[in-house]
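R.M. (postdoc): so does anyone remember the format we settled on? I'll just put the structure tokens first.
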């Protein structure tokens, strides 16, 4: 491998780079059901003593990468391969990148990843066709493929995954059944029917498989699922292969998402903003009440003034109409 670990500092406020508080704040498509399955499979590997490196092909802004990095053990390496800001190298892939991932940038990926980890993974910035020359054969225990959706590219990614995986390694193929990614579907099922890929389980978005024996993985997952109220296992057979499918109205419940180094500061900022908002509302309410009281007082004064105006007009009329001797007498009386 060509390590590119860098001592990049996590993104400070005001830089325009993301500062996620939890994994849920990182943009991307990594749903709860798959987070649960990643956790189950990687934890089972650790319990079973399976060691090896981790590889992700296609990272977007780092949501699944930040999650995967939590399972890296001492002496293991995590490699991420993505084009990021680089050109794809062929017209079809370039068009897909511009259409679906125009906001992708390496700096944003690094900022998101470093929010949860002290060190970046090994980064291969370029097409996934570079993976076979950068990652040693048989060195990986877990490979997540979420790069191009084009059939020829996905075929190449699956071939690369098989090359770098250990015999008991797990490959995860994203978007194997989405309507906008028929190339992924074709390459995935072709690998099962003709290339020896064996299914472990299926989620709504991802195919989990191995070129080894899937039975231990399936048994471990079934044991995990037994007794859960939020999901159950559905077993089916495809071309002689047993396939485990997780079924549930909402899928298995996720524990609290991982918190980043910014979590406490962001929560403090939210609390401060909420306090400012509360005080502003109280101040506005007091001002409105004072304005209401002032308005009521002014209205009462206007009513009193209006009540006095007819009497004053009557007095002025009397002074004008009465004989001068009488009006002089009235004035003398009023002046006493």
């Amino acid at each position: 491998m060509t390590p590119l670990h860098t001592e990049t500092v996590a993104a400070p406020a005001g830089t325009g780079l993301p500062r996620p508080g939890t994994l849920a704040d990182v943009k991307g498509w990594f749903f709860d059901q798959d987070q649960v399955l990643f956790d189950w499979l990687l934890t089972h590997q650790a319990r079973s003593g399976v060691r090896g490196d981790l590889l992700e092909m296609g990272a977007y802004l780092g949501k699944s990468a930040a999650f995967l990095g939590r399972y890296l053990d001492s002496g293991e390496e995590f490699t991420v391969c993505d084009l990021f800001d680089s050109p794809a190298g062929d017209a079809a892939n370039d068009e897909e990148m511009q259409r679906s991932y125009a906001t992708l940038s390496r700096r944003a990926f690094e900022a998101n990843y470093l929010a949860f980890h002290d060190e970046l993974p090994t980064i291969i910035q370029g097409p996934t066709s570079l993976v076979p020359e950068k990652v040693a054969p048989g060195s990986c225990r877990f490979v997540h493929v979420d790069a191009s959706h084009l059939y020829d590219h996905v075929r190449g990614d699956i071939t690369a995954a098989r090359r770098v995986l250990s015999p008991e390694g797990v490959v995860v193929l994203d978007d194997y059944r989405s309507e906008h990614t028929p190339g992924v579907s074709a390459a995935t099922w072709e690998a099962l029917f003709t290339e020896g890929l064996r299914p472990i389980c299926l989620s709504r978005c991802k195919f989990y498989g191995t070129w080894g024996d899937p039975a231990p993985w399936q048994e471990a997952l079934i044991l995990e699922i037994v007794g859960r109220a939020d999901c159950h296992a559905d077993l089916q057979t495809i071309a002689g292969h047993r396939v485990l499918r997780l079924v549930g109205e909402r899928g298995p419940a996720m524990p609290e998402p991982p918190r980043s180094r910014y979590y406490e500061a962001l929560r403090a900022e939210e609390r401060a903003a909420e306090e400012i908002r509360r005080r502003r509302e109280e101040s506005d309410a007091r001002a409105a009440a004072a304005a209401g009281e002032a308005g009521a007082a002014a209205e009462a004064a206007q009513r009193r003034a209006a009540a006095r105006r007819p009497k004053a007009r009557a007095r002025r009329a009397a002074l004008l109409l009465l004989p001068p001797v009488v009006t002089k007498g009235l004035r003398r009386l009023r002046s006493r």
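R.M.: ...and that's the designed sequence above, right after the tokens. Also worth knowing: The CA atoms of residues 22 and 259 lie 4 Å apart. The chain has two domains: 23-254, 267-334.
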